Amino acid sequence: MKILVPVKRVVDYNVKVRVKADQTGIDLANVKMSLNPFCEIAVEEAVRLKEAGIATEVVVISIGQTSAQEQLRTALALGADRAILLETELNLDSLQVAKLLAKVVATEQPQLVIIGKQAIDSDNNQTGQMLAALTGMGQGTFASKVVVADGKVAVTREIDGGLQTVSLNLPAVVSTDLRLNEPRYASLPNIMKAKKKPLEVVAADSFGVSLQSQVKTLKVAAPAVRQAGVMVDSVDALVAKLKQEAKVI
Amino acid sequence: MAILIIAEHNHQALKADTAKTVAAATKLGGDIHVLVAGFECAAAATEAAGLVGVTKVLLADAACYQHQLAENIAALVVDLGRDYSHILAAATTHGKNFLPRVAALLDVAQISDVIAVESADTFVRPIYAGNAIATVQSADAIKVLTVRSSAFDAVATGNSASVEAISQATDAGLSVFVGEELTKSERPELTAAKIIISGGRGMQNGDNFKLLEGIADKLNAAIGASRAAVDAGFVPNDMQVGQTGKIVAPDLYIAVGISGAIQHLAGMKDSKVIVAINKDAEAPIFQVADYGLVADLFVALPELEAKL
Ligand SMILES: Cc1cc2nc3c(=O)[nH]c(=O)nc-3n(C[C@H](O)[C@H](O)[C@H](O)COP(=O)(O)OP(=O)(O)OC[C@H]3O[C@@H](n4cnc5c(N)ncnc54)[C@H](O)[C@@H]3O)c2cc1C
After folding, report:
1. pLDDT > 90 in chain B, percent
2. Centroid of chain to Cα B256
3. Which domain holds residue A18?
4. Which of A166, A176, A227, A247 to mutate to test binding with chain B, by most B CBs within 10 Å of its CB?
5. Domains held by chain A: number
C-alpha cells in the first residue's frame, strides 16, 4: 500500500509573528521556518504504518517555493521514501492545493492520504476534506487513532463532544490531530541518508489547474492588545476584585 | 438570494452555535434558511424555526444523517446549496468536517473561522493562532463560511418560521459509523459557559482536577484544559482550549497551572476577564491576565473554593 503525505512549510510554532507595518501580510524576514506540526504527525503515522508492514511506500509532497525542499528533506529524514515538490511562487488557497493534490493522487494512486488537519499559518483546516471531495474518497478528519485492516481504515476522531470512530473504504483521506502520535526526531544518519533520497520538482502550473485565487486579502492587522492587568497578593483580594471591580461572580 | 445555514444539533435540540451563526448571517442581508439534517430531529427543526431572523427551516430527517457523516451531509448541502449566495456553518468540529467538502464540490473557496462580517463579500478572520487578523474579500459566486461562535451573540428566540421537509436522503457509502465515546457532564458546555476554569500541566494528574470541580460547581462554570493536560491523559480531548482545540470567550476565564503558550492564548484571549493562578511570576499567562495571583495552586484552589 502506498501512502501519500502532503506537507507544508510554515513559520515555526514557537515564533510569535508580527504583521508588516503596511498591513499587507506577515513579516517573514529572518523568521524560523519548519515543517507544520500536524504534517510532522502525518509523516510519522505513515512511517509507522510502513514499519508495521502495512504500507510499502511513503511519498511526501509539498506545494510551494523552492525553499520547501528543506521540509521535504526533513520528512525524508523521518522515514519517507521519496518526495515531490510542486513548485510555485504563488500563495495558493486550500482549494487550489486540493486540486493539485487530486491530480497527483490520480497518477500516484495512493491507497491512503494522511494530511495534517490544519496548517498553523493560515489555520484553515480545509485541504484534506477538499481533497477527499475532489477525489470521491471518504474522509476521517482530526484522527487520534488510525487502524488499517481488510481494505478499510478505522479512524478515531477528536470531536467537540469526545471521540467518534468511523470506518472508511480505501482509498481514503485521514487528517491528523495532535494526539495521533508523538513524532520522532530525525537521527543524524537518517538526515544524511535523506539527502540521497529522490526529490522530484515539477512546476505547479503544469497541471492545467487554475492557480488564481478568488479570495483577496485586503488587509492583515495586528490583533487588539489586552490592557495590562494587576497582580493580587491573596485569594481574598482576588475574590474581592472579581466581585466588586469586574463583577463577574 | 438567500443564505443557507447548516444547523448544529444533537437531533433533539439545537446547539447554541446555531443561533450565533444566524447572528452572523443577519449581517449579510437576505433571507435565512436553516437546514436541520439528522434523524428523528423534528424537535431541533422546531427550535431552529424559533430563531429570530430565520425565514425557513429545511428538515432532512433520515437514518443516513444520524451520525452526521461528512460525506452524506456534504452531498445533501451541495444539492440544496447551488441556489444560495452564502452557505454557513459553525466552526465546530462538525462544521470543519463537512463544509470544506461542500466548498470543493461547489468549486469555491471556504473562508474559515469568520469573526466579523464587513459586507456580503468581505470577512474578517484570525490567522497565525490569532496573532494576525486578516480581512478577505471573496469573488466566488457562493460564499462558503465557517463562523466562530465566540465572536457573535446568539439571536433571540420567539420566531415561528415555516418548516419544510426535504425527502432526499442519499448514503454516499464512503464511510460507516462505528462508535462514539461522548463525555458526559452536568456542567455547561465549554463554548456556551459564562465562566470557565481551566487546568494545565501544573495540575499534575487527572485526580487533581477535582480541585477545579468544586469551584466550577460553585460558579456554574465549565472546566477546560491546556493541550499539555490532555496529552498527559489528565482529561479528555474535548476539554482542550486553544488554537487547535476549542475557542472560547466567556465572561470569566480562570487559568490554573497554565503557562500561556501562544496556542493556548489563541483559544481564550478574547475572554472578558482573565484570571491566572501560577506559581511562576514570569509565566506569559500573566501578560494577558486582568488579575494575576502568584501562588501554588494546591494552596490557592482550596482557599478559593472556600471563599466563594
Ligand atoms: C501545533 C500545535 C498546536 C497546539 N495547540 C494547542 C491548543 O490548542 N491548546 C493548548 O493549550 N496548547 C496547544 N499547544 C501546546 C502549547 O504550545 C503548550 O505546549 C501548552 O499549551 C502548554 O500547556 P501548559 O501551559 O499546561 O503546560 P506548561 O507550559 O508546562 O505550563 C505549566 C505551568 O504550570 C505552572 N505550575 C506548575 N506547578 C504549579 C503549581 N503547583 N501551582 C501553580 N502553578 C504551577 C508552571 O509554572 C507552568 O507555568 C499546541 C502546540 C502545537 C505545536
Report:
1. 98
2. 22
3. 2-246
4. A166
5. 1
